[in-house]
Design goal:
The protein is an alpha/beta fold and 433 residues long. It has 2 domains: 105 residues, no CATH class; 296 residues, Alpha-Beta Complex (Spore Coat Polysaccharide Biosynthesis Protein SpsA, Chain A). It is 29% helix and 13% strand. Strands 5-6-4-1-7-10-9-11-13 form a 9-stranded mixed beta sheet, with helices on both faces. The chain has a two-stranded antiparallel ribbon with strand order 2-3.
């Protein structure tokens, strides 16, 4: 990419401030140029995370860039060209403080360490039986109201899931009997009748644990003043999206702290389980573990529901999320964890002790049909409740080849893998399943 090395000074009009002191301005220009050449770090030493947040405004009020175009120019793996950054910043007319874009740029480079912070939730000890589960299925929930009435999505979701489990375990050949955990965490600060009326159970086939989270992990960041988080082209998570990130972190940490399991599945509180979803999930996982045990993730629907991870990847992804609460929504960050081909960065701009799955040459897979269907008509994001805000979601049994909300890597490849249940099938070694 060709850049203008003088772009960083192109908009600095020193004559505007000192119209009668051109000689002084010229000397000042030479001095600033000297500083850029001698004090700023060389290109190979400047590391800015590829996940640099858009429009982030940190608690200590240190400003960061607030422009999607700048993010695109900065996100070139972990090393960038200084002149490209200079050009991007010089073209940026948005500011979150009284400083100019160039001053923000100088301040950021002088700090050397990007102001990325890490925040962690309070983990709660939960009473439970000590056993090792094959899979933990976890659901985060919170009270939702419409016209003053609570919506009972969590009751429908849980009833659907447990019914499918009960049906499956009527089969004599059912897999993983007594090795399935269903964990539901309610983050409502106050009553939530749809959750509060549920009953915890253990029936010998699976365990259901209901946890009322009284130590909610609240979003530690502030909105960027003046930033329109509801704009169609906005990529930065607002308060509700950041809180959703924080709730996912809290649930993941609680389940990792309290339970022993091999595999984990995220499930949203407004998705129902489709017919044969449990039997197909377990069948596919059994074969995948045999043919590709190093898998990173398996997706069986869309959104943040139906994403299956090995236990260690849940831990790693949660750590990555803790470092990036204000970077992007949780269902976008999971894509970065799966498909990013560069190193992952955390606090202080330092590399995390693990790599993104693609960078580690580990693959993620998608099941050929929808196994969980979205039923939620009322979102915790008020702007999404406007008629026509988004397309209709796919129903049970629909092909995952063209799911509109998934990216290409989250869609089933029916051309190459028509004899398989998962794609990409290139990495699977053995008979099709």
């Amino acid at each position: 990419m060709q850049t203008n090395r003088n772009a960083s000074t192109r908009h600095i009009d020193v004559h505007k401030h000192c119209p009668d002191k051109r000689a002084t301005a010229f000397v000042l220009f030479i001095f600033i140029t000297f500083l850029f050449c001698t004090i700023l770090p060389p290109v190979e030493d400047l590391h800015i995370p590829a996940h640099l947040p858009v429009g982030t405004y940190y608690r200590d009020k240190r400003p960061t860039f607030n422009n999607d175009r700048i993010l695109a120019q900065l996100a070139r793996k972990d090393i960038i060209r200084i002149d490209a950054v200079k050009q991007a910043v010089s073209e940026d007319t948005t500011t979150t403080t009284t400083t100019t874009a160039t001053q923000k740029y100088i301040a950021r480079l002088n700090s050397r360490d990007p102001p990325v912070k890490q925040f962690k939730p309070t983990v709660t000890d939960i009473e439970h039986d000590s056993k090792k589960y094959f899979m933990a299925i976890a659901i985060n929930t919170i009270a939702r109201k419409k016209y003053g009435e609570f919506k009972d999505y969590i009751a429908q979701t849980l009833s659907s899931l447990t019914s499918r489990l009960d049906e499956y375990y009527q089969e004599p050949s059912a897999l993983y009997r007594s090795k399935i955990l269903v964990f539901v965490q309610d983050n409502t600060d106050g009553p939530n009748p749809p959750f509060d009326n549920l009953q915890q159970t253990s029936n010998g086939n699976y365990d259901l644990v209901l946890f009322k989270n009284k130590n909610r992990f609240f979003d530690p960041f502030d909105d960027v003043p003046g930033h329109n988080y509801e704009a169609p082209d906005n990529a930065a998570p607002g308060r509700k999206a950041r809180q959703q990130n924080a709730d996912v972190i809290s649930m993941s940490r609680n389940i990792l702290h309290n339970f022993d399991f091999e595999h984990f599945m995220f499930m949203e509180d407004d998705f129902i389980s489709c017919p044969d979803s449990i039997s197909e999930t377990f069948r596919v996982m059994k074969n995948l573990i045999r043919q590709y045990p190093q898998y990173c993730a398996v997706r069986v629907t869309y959104g943040m529901s139906g994403v299956i991870l090995p236990r260690q990847d849940l831990d790693h992804y949660t750590t990555y999320l803790e470092h990036n609460i204000d970077a992007m929504p949780v269902d976008i960050l999971i894509r970065w964890y799966q498909f990013h081909d560069a190193e992952l960065f955390g606090e202080g701009g330092k590399e995390l002790p693990f790599r993104a799955c693609r960078a580690a040459d580990r693959r993620s897979f998608v099941y050929k049909h929808i196994l969980q269907e979205h039923i939620g008509a009322v979102s915790t994001f008020s702007e999404r409740n406007v008629p026509g805000f988004r397309k209709e979601f796919e129903k049970c049994g629909a092909s995952t080849t063209n799911v509109w909300s998934n990216n290409n890597e989250e869609r089933f490849d029916g051309n190459r893998c028509k004899e398989w249940s998962l794609s990409p099938c290139l990495y699977l070694q053995g008979p099709p399943f």
